[in-house]
Amino acid sequence: MNPWWVLPAMVFGVAGAWLLYLASPQQRWRAAPLRAWPGVACALSSLALLWPAMGAAAAVAMWLTVLMLVTTLAPFLGAWRARRREGAA
């Protein structure tokens, strides 16, 4: 495993999952959702960087784990942020 490929792959994976979450109409971070193509591009770039560094099965498993972690935490962080904003106002 080459750590110089894995670190940017993780950054692209987190950014891709976050951008895909921001493309959802139910998200609470922005007034209007973003387009989905930047998130898809970042997520696929992440997989493309992981694939030669780890092999097929490990790359897909790690890629899916990162995407699921971020997309699971993003709604909770959005709700927490909205609650803090309501409390401050």
UniProtKB/TrEMBL annotation:
<feature type="transmembrane region" description="Helical">
    <location>
        <begin position="36"/>
        <end position="54"/>
    </location>
</feature>
<protein>
    <submittedName>
        <fullName>TSPO protein</fullName>
    </submittedName>
</protein>
<keyword id="KW-1133">Transmembrane helix</keyword>
<keyword id="KW-0472">Membrane</keyword>
<keyword id="KW-0812">Transmembrane</keyword>
<feature type="transmembrane region" description="Helical">
    <location>
        <begin position="60"/>
        <end position="80"/>
    </location>
</feature>
<feature type="transmembrane region" description="Helical">
    <location>
        <begin position="6"/>
        <end position="24"/>
    </location>
</feature>
